[in-house]
Amino acid sequence: MNSELAKTGVPSTHRNTRQRIAGLIDIPRLFQAIDADPAIVGAGVVYIESDFSMVTLREFQPICSIAPKKIVLREAPRHIALAEFMRELQTQPRESRLVMEAVNTALSCAGALMGWIVVISGTIATPFTAGVSLVVASVGSAAVLASSAQCALGVVRTVAEASQPQLNDWLDNSEWYRYTTMVLDAVSLAGVGTSFLTTVRWVGVTKAATGKGTLEVLRGT
Amino acid sequence: MMILVNVPQFLLRHFPIFISGLLLGLFSVGCSLTTAVIVYFPGENPAYLIFTCIAFALIVGMSHVMILYGRPQWVRVMVGVFALCLLILLSPSAYRHNTYVWFLGVLFPLLGLLVLNSKRHRRMRRKMVQVRRFRIMVRKAQAIVREREKGKP
Questions:
Q1: Which of A62, A175, B21, B73 has its CA 20 to 30 A from that of A23?
Q2: What is this structure's pTM?
Q3: ipTM rounded to 2 decimals
Q4: Does A126 contact B139 at a Cβ distance shorter than 8 Å?
Q5: Do B30 and A127 touch (CB under 8 A)?
Q6: Which residue of A has its CA nearest to B24?
């Protein structure tokens, strides 16, 4: 331990953990048993201890197939009986991500809220030329429609997480869903860009008309 | 930029009711459509759910934009959306599937209809019609000024 500290300056907990696990289980025999089954040959192996620290024993090696496989070995936590833990693993293989989905939904709806404030201010204050305002209004409207759609999709994901979580897994693995969310993000950001450019132009015009400095114009004094 | 109405005061008074109507619309669409698809169409491709949800969210957003631009007739579209979201959940199988989600799915459309019916929301719709008429007058005045400037040598 001291010689290792002298060599690196930092104690290598990862190497110690792997050495500890090598003492607990026969790693070469484990790899042999895994490679003997043609369905999982070459699979990566990850070991999760009872205190949820994770050690990667080996990476996936594409020996027979190129589809990556990973075997996760879990040590039963100390507070739970072994049979109970096995039953838990079999019946609830997926951790619930309800809180994470709810937080993401809250964030997208807050983004939609900001966009709507901009749209409302836009209906009340008209710029100088009708042509400009039409373009700005349509881009701004498209952006808030996109962010409202994102908010609704967030609610769909949250409800799906509560009722049928496999739906969310299916959505995360679909390419078309990723493209759809990318398109919605792009349209929402386009609205942000347009309102920024409009603000810049408005500040310039007000400065030229009134002779005030930028900060004064932005503050409204 | 011509400011037609005192912006901060207007926002403080009317924005909360407007945005709660909108958010309740989006939440009820998300909740009802998801539960309906899970309960009534269990084996279908989820793509239908996603695109239907996006379509309804666009309808909700569009009707609120139209209300903002001074056309209060579009509130009938919102009433229709809320009524649809409420009706598709009124079945025993939806109730049994997940009771908490069912309660939320029934609560959101009812609250949304309440918000649309409130005095403040009606006042906001009337105010937006006034703003629209004012905006038309300002545009006409700007057009006249531009014509005059073009006519000058």
A1: A62
A2: 0.72
A3: 0.90
A4: yes
A5: no
A6: A152
